[in-house]
Every structure is written in C-alpha cells, then in structure tokens.
Amino acid sequence: MNTIGKDIKHAWRGFRENTVFAVTAVLALTLGIGVNIAIFSVVNAVLLKPIPFDSPDTLVMPMNTNDGAIAGPAASPGKYMHYRAQSDVLEHVTAFRSIALNFERGDVLESVQAHQVTADFFDAFRPPLLAGRVFKAEEDLPNAGRTVVLGEGFWRQRLGADPNIVGQSITLSGNPYTVVGIVARSFEFRDFGPGDMYVPFQFDPNTKDQGHYFLSAARLKPGVTLEQAQARLAASAASYREQFPAAMNPKSGFSALSFQETIVGQARSSLYVALGAVGLVLLIACANVANLLLIRATGRRREMAMRVALGAGRWRIVRQLLTESVLLSLIGGVLGIVLGYVGMRVLLTVNTAGLPRLGEAGSLLGMDWRVVLFGLGLSILTGLLFGLIPALVASRADLNSVIKDSSGRSGSGFRQNKTRSVLVLVEVSLAVVLLVGAALLIRTSFALGSVDPGFQAKNVLTMRTSLSGPQYRTSAGVAQTARTALERIRQVPGVVAATMTCCVPLQGGYGLPFIIVGKPHEGPFTGGGAINFSASGYFDAFNIPVVRGRAFDDDRDTGNSPPVIIVNQAFVKQYFKDGDPIGERIHVGGGAANMRELTTEPIREIVGIVGDVRAGGIGNDPGPTMYMPLAQEPDALNALMQASGAMGWIVRTNVGTETVSGTVQNIVRQETGVPVTAVQGMDDIVSVSISRQRLNMLLMTIFGASALALAAIGIYGLMAYSVQQRTQEIGIRLALGALPARVRAGVISQGMVLVGIGVAVGTAAAFFLAKLLASVLFGVAAHDGFVFVGVPLVLGAAAFAAVAIAAQRASRVDPLDALRYE
User: Fold this and answer.
1) Does residue 415 sit in the same domain as residue 499?
2) What is the pLDDT of residues 645-686, one digit of tens each?
3) How confident is the model at residue 725 (pLDDT cuts 50, 70, 90)?
C-alpha cells in the first residue's frame, strides 16, 4: 500500500509538471466517460432497475398472439374472465385503464384522471396505503354502489389532506363516490396512464363482452414459471374459441410477458443502440489518450532506462505507468459522472422521447449505486485499457540504445510509430462507424419530419372534455351538444372549420371487425379496422381530402337517417381491389354475436372515400379506417367511449391558434357544462409522436460530433509529433533545396494514407453493423448510398484539415534551427 501511495504521489507530481498533457487527457476521458454515464443512467432507470412493485418477477401481463407472435396486450371483459379462469398458473388477475372524470367540490369543477381497476388490482400491485382500505370483492360487482381509493397527491392537493376523508363522499362526474382508502404517493403507475385515484370496473362475472378497451395483469402462482404460464395460456385458446367462436380467428391465441418487459420492450432497441454508440466514443477517447501516453512515454525513455539500469523491474515500471493512467481515468471518471448525469437530466427536460420509467421531464432519473459503480468500474477499466500498451512499450527501454540514440529522435523507431499509427487508424475506423449511425438516424428524423401524415397540423387547435351527466348517456344527447357548440365555434372570427370526435390522430383510438355484406370471407369477419365517430367538419378540420362520394352532413346524417359510413383509401385498396365501394354495405361488428356493444349495430352504406391518415403513428403505414357520424353511434358504444375517456374538439383557424383558444374554450365549457383539458396545437401532438426518433438523432449527432472531433485531434497529434521527430530530416531537406510545398505534400500524403485505410476499414465495419439499426430507421435504407459516401467525405475533409495544419508547420521549419535541434 505504501508503494502504491508513492506511485500516486509520483504520478500527481508528473501531472503538475506537465499540465497541458494532463488537462488534455482528462478532458478526452471526461467526454468519453461522461457520454457513457449519461446513457447508462437512462439504461439503468429504464431497463435495469426493478419495476417499483413488490415481487416484480412474478408480475405478468397476458397477451394476444397472432400466428404465434405477440400481437398486443389489449383485453376485453370476456378475455379478462377467461384469464381469471386459468387459476392453476395465475392469481390476482386484474384489469385496468386510465379514464377522465369530472371532480366537483362546491363551485369548482375540474377534470381529473383516474385508474379504473378491478378489486384484484390491489392484490396484484400491492400499493402501500396511508389510510383506510381497498375495494372489497363485492364492491367490484355491477350495481354495488360507487367507491373510490384516492391517491395521496389528490388527497393533499385537492382535499387539503383532510384526515377524516375516509368514509366521506366526493362527487365525480355527477355521481357520489365513497372514499374507502388513500394510496401513498410512492406508488408509481404513470407508465400505464395518468391517474391519482382508483374506481372499480364492476364487470358482470357472466359477461360475454368482447370490446377491447383496457389492459390486464396477473401474478404467477407460487412455483409457476413464466414459461409454464405461457404454455397454459396458449393451450387455453382452444376453449375460448369454442366459447366465443366469433371473437377469435384460428390463428389467434394467448400468451404472457413479464410486466417489466411490457413496460420497457419498445425502448430496449433504442437504448442499446445509444449504449453501443457511446462505447465507440469511449474507445476513440481511449485511443486518443493512449497516443498521448505513448508520446509522453517516448519523452521519458531515458528516465525509464535509468530506472531499469538502477534495478527497477519491468513490472515495477509497468505498475507506475498504469497507476498514472488509472489516476487520469479516475479523475476523468469523476468529472464524467457529474457531466453525464447532469447533461442527461438537462436533455430529458427538453425531450424524454416517451421513454418509460423516467417520469415527467426525467424527474425519476436518479443517481444510484449502479450508476456510481458503473462509472468507477468504467474508469478503472478505461485506465487499464489505454494505459497498458504505452506502459509495456515504455518498460522495454534499454539504456544502451537510449544513450546511443539522439534525444531529438528518440522514440522515432518503427515500433512506436507503428503503434501510434494503429491507434489513430482505430480512432478513424470507429469514428466512421459512429458517424454512419448518426447520419442514418439524422436522415430518419428528417424523413419523419417530411412525411405526409395525411392531415394538416398547422393552425389546428385540439382540446378535450370528459362528458358526464344524464344528457350524454345517449349518442343523440352528445350529438346535439356537439352541434350547438360547433355552430357557435364556427362563427368565431378566424375559425375555418370545427368538429367533435372520439379520436384525435396520433392519440390512440378504437378498432372493430366488420363484414362486407355479400362478399365471401373466411372466419367470422371480412376484416378489421380503425373506427372513428365524428361530427360533420372532421375532414375539413384536418384538410383530409374526400376522394370520392361525400363527407358527413349534420342535417342529412342524423340518428333517424339511413346508417352511413365513410372508408379510407387503404380500406378500398385492401377490400375492394377490383370494384367501386360506393353503395356497398358494411356490418361493423357483424358476426360478433357476443359483442354486447354491437348487437344493435345496423348495416351501413358506404357513401364516401377519403384520403389515408397516419393516425397510429407518423412512421406507421395507414391501415383500413372507417368513419361514422357521431349522431349514428350506437348508444352502447357511446356509453363505452364516454366512460373510456374524453372527447376531442378540433378547430382549424386561419390565424394563430392562441388567438381563438380562449374563446373556443369558453364556448365548449358553456355548452357542455364540463371542464376543458389538454389544450394544445396539433403541431405539438405530431412533435411528441416523433420525439423518440428526434432524441435518437440528437444523441447520435452529439456522439458523432464527439467522435469526429476526437479523431481529428488524434490525427493532428500523430502528425504533429511525427513532424517534431523529423525536424532534423526536414531541415536538411529544406537546406538542400527541397520546396516547402513538396514537404507539405509529403506530410499530407503520409497522413491521408493512414486516414484512407481507417476510413476503408470503418466503412466496411459500418456496412455490416448498420443492419442493427434497421428496427429504428424510417424512410432510409440501412445501407443508404448517400450516407456511405457522405460520411467518408466529411471525415476525410476533417482529417485533411488536421493533417494540413501539421504539414504547414513542417514546411515552416528553419533549416538552421533544425540542425541545432536535439
């Protein structure tokens, strides 16, 4: 320990004597380690930390499958009861979803988010209680009365932390709910929707309802593995199909995933790509510092040779030099931990990219033992990695050869120049790989930004209302309120078009099966598609073109008029390839006799065809979509949608949306009698939908720029050192009449040959690695020619600039000074 202490003191004294070297090395390491800490802190929060529930390994989410592949987690009441029946492998099966309610307290009426759950939710997720209890099983049955479990935040902020609230009633959406308990704020469930209270679902145990509008979860029974549960659920699909033959096609089935996988699954690939990218940045930084250490070791050859001559063993020399490199790395690591963590927190305040488990503006991103241990471990490993080669090179110093060699040219031997050249070649190659990845993601972001979503978002204002009260229990009541409010909104100066809809593009929606009357089909349905109920003006509000036929008309398409439907071009392309769909008839939900909401759904006539809309995501191809008039929505479906969430109001203006926002909100509040929430421009909704791709682009741009800068510095450092070692040779050549331009050309040629080799190796590596990015690319091929030509040119230009600076210095060598150089 005493010897190590002396090594540290000796290293520290050396750094103080050569501060330029120390600062340069620490800055390179701080950058390399910092970007790794930044990404690892997110990977830790999203992927590594256990989900914040008791015994998380036993929490699972039942899944739908299609032809053996996972098709999604959406569940229906019928499926929920089926999952509960698999009691040999599952227990505490629960259903949950996020809904909007209107909270009334005195004269105050505001919209609040709530989780609608079954009683088993509390046994499955085990949230800590501050007071009271959770639902009883009998309180989760139909007509059992209304109860609510509050979240601590709601209790404190809206009820003043009333200690006597348990047992009292609060009014939600016009109905009295008895408060039975309070859940502690530490229980975090925001990744499945906002909400700070819990109300019961109250499913009918004998339900045959096949509407998919919530998620489900369960606990594995003690001793049961996930694989056993998956096998049991897959086998159970046959009995479900027998019970509900119209609800599931022969290729559909059931499975399950761990709850953590359902939360983080989609984010995994993006984070792994980022983690791989920062690893390359660190390797480039290591190569840079290793070259610095090699240069420094060259200048210390006499010192090392004298120490060997005085009896120091080779291991003693290596240990001293490794101590210096590890000390440098630890300093850079500590600074990198701070830089990376703070930098990532700042970045996430701008854009969390919808990554799960990070909270609002990255508030849940924390510095725990995993991040600190990763930072320290990475620092030590990095110090050993970049310090080992220079230490081994320096430990070979031989006193006789050093004495014979001129100090001015010491270290200019083939072996050391070769080692430094290889390190720079590695830097260039890694930089090419990283820049190719960055360029592909940048092109993806631009492609998403330029894609036509099928609607115009500029100057479109959106807002939501959660309709509650007896007047909204029928679609006629909703349609009448919409008609009255929209007539007033359309008279506001600056308003071009306005509508009310169940579904705002890019914010989720509903889907239903259908039968095309008179057209043969396999299985219970012709197909399935998205469904949208809207008032007139929907297509005008979004500038969606009516390709053929007509749009909705409030006077023509009333609740008493013949039922109609409009379909999109994707629907026509898939189901009417060789015919005209206008006048054809569709039975939405047809063949699904067990679908409660659709038992009264009439057969509808297709009256129009509209353009495709990328409603499910800017990067997703439009699928078959059906549009129905709001006034013709079945009452059962209207009740389901009102219970599921808030209705959307869409207003297109020819002025800034902020100009009319206040007036429109007042009209909506007056006509509906409920609060207005989620007021935002459609531009903002589009921006949020591509936020993950933009974060990928931003991160890779930062990493790529870092790699480019480090590679240019490395190339310049190598060439500058090479020029320094050849000062006497260059001076003699100039004295004998060599032209400065010829000297410059020689140095540039030497440097660019090395760069060319590095670029070639890096391009080949990038070609094979680019396919790993395929899953996060859009609108650009993994082997895009523009990228694979442009990146080498950009890196070559940066390298040429670095080499040219060193070459210019070489051409200015004074022959007299060079002859005196030692």
Assistant:
1) no
2) 678 999 999 998 999 999 999 999 999 988 898 899 999 988
3) low
- Residue 467 falls within a domain, yes or no? yes
User: Do 215 and 272 sit in the same domain of this protein?
Assistant: no
Q: Could you read off the pLDDT of 213-264 as tens digits, one per residue? A: 889 999 999 999 999 999 999 999 999 988 887 677 788 899 999 988 888 8
Total tally of structural domains belonging to the chain: 3
**Six token digits for residue 459:** 């100057």
Average pLDDT over residues 487-515: 90
Asked whether residue 429 is assigned to any structural domain, the reply reads yes
Please tell me the pTM assigned to this model. Answer: 0.76
pLDDT average, residue stretch 182-207: 87
Last residue of a domain, one of 638, 660, 689: 689
Q: Do 437 and 475 fall within a single domain? A: no
Report the Cα 714 to chain-centroid distance in Å. Answer: 33
Measure the CA–CA gap between 720 and 424, rounded to whole angstroms: 13
pLDDT tens by residue, 384-407: 877 777 767 666 655 455 555 544
**Domain end: 689, 723, 738, which one?**
689
Same domain, residue pair 326 and 214: no
Whether residue 52 is contained in a domain is answered as no
Q: How far is CA 219 from the centre of its chain?
A: 27
Give me the torsion for CA of 270, 273, 274, 278, rounded to 10°.
Answer: 170
Helix (H, G, I), strand (E, B) or coil at 750: helix
3-state secondary structure 355-399: CCCCCHHHCCCCCCHHHHHHHHHHHHHHHHHHHHHHHHHHCCCCH
Domain of residue 796 covers: 2-47+268-445+693-820
Q: Name residue, tokens 């013949």.
A: 562
Percent of the chain past pLDDT 70, that is, above it, reads 87
Supply 341's token pair: 């963590």
Using CB atoms within 10 A of its CB, is residue 5 exposed (0-12), middle (13-18) or buried (19+)? exposed
Contacts of 65-73 with C-beta under 8 Å, sequence gap 24+, read: 65/234, 65/252, 65/253, 65/254, 65/255, 66/251, 66/252, 66/253, 67/251, 68/253, 70/255, 70/257, 71/252, 73/215, 73/216, 73/262
Q: SS3 letters for 206-237?
A: CCCCCCCCEEEEEEECCCCCHHHHHHHHHHHH
For helices 301-309 and 314-350, angle between their N-to-C axes, nearest 10 degrees: 140
Whether residue 617 sits in one domain with residue 711: no
